[in-house]
Amino acid sequence: MDKMWAGRFEKALDKMADDFNSSIHFDKKMYKQDIRGSLEHASMLCAVGILTAEELGLITEGLTSILDDLNNGVLTFDDNAEDIHMFVEAELTKRIGDAGKKLHTARSRNDQVALDLRLYMRDEARDIVALLRKLISSLLNQAKENKKTIMPGYTHLQRAQPITFAHHLLAYCMMLLRDITRIEDAIRRMNYSPLGSCALAGTTYPTDRDMVAKALGFDGVCMNSIDGVSDRDYCIELESAFATVMMHLSRLSEEIILWSSWEFKFVELDDAYTTGSSIMPQKKNPDMAELVRGKTGRVYGDLMATLTMLKGIPLAYNKDMQEDKESIFDATETVKKCLEVFVPMIATMKPIPENMYNAAKRGFINATDLADYLTKRGLPFRTAYKIVGTIVGKCVKENKTLDELTIEEYKKYSDIFDTDLYDEISLESCVGKRISKGSTGYTSVEEQIAYVEEQLK
Ligand code: ARG
Question: Is the pTM of this model over 0.70?
């Protein structure tokens, strides 16, 4: 196929170089956005008198038929076209003749690709926000069912203090809610139209950039045409937000993997989201969670690739920038697929409260509460801490839990101890007595549930 830009050249592009240069195999993803942008560009060209109404009619009809044919598979992408923009324009001219050749007036592929990618990523980012909301709902439902499910809370992966499973899951709801705001922030900042920046310096035609921007749902136009065609900040912001989402999913994956092990057995994943082994008949593996944990690195890599691709290129457009797409498409698809599989995996996950409770019973998880018991009755906290430490040491030696010591034994360490201590260090009261805002206490957990519900509205 003759290149659109062939005029200046005496020789055709080498076949290998042509393939190397071509981006249609990945930028064809943006065909809807490309056509949508061209439709609005053409309307604007007509409104300012550059195209006649008749030409606009032909272009509109031609582009719409191309869109329909691509949607229905009647038309397939030509792998010899350099990119999606060239493909659509060539196809249009094939269909409507000379009017098609006027579409690219007052536009360059530099602002065209900048527009297409913004439109594409705005749609994708909104889809990801919707998926995040679904995942938060799944977690919230599990939290609501497990308001009374007591489990060990950990630090250093050592049993630390009793918490409820609800409280633990709500922590993830908070992270994912912040992820949504990060993506929404990025969308707000990117929502300006680069179209009309042209190659880099703007145009001599009396275009109406605001008209196109408005029609495409932007909040305005990029104010500097050089920036308009060079800016990929939004790719970095989105990839960074996606990387953060993946990091959160990966942490939760790691917990789910631990919780599903025989060592913990805090949850049972649904058969539909686990796999077996080809040799060990007993195995039920949490592959989905492991894959999400594994794919996190890919998304980090995509962010790094974009940052590195951009760091050395002078203004304005350089072909390096074609590399923005494969990275951000990969990051987008990966985070979407991970969220899609996570939503039902969480919704169908069955907690095993007895195991969580039994784990919480061992490990002196109520030792802080025993120290608080003494402190509330007049001992300085450090003194109380020391006494309880000694008692824990004795229990470790005798393989006992704190509630198995008799009151006489307790009295040997301090005569402040009385029989009401047993009530105070029960797991239920350790959780129930936590009254600070944001704590694992029952009232606080209700507040957190209400907060998440409010944010999801
Ligand atoms: N396929 C190119 C890209 O993705 C489109 C812009 C090409 N512009 C140019 N002047 N070669 O970046």
Answer: yes
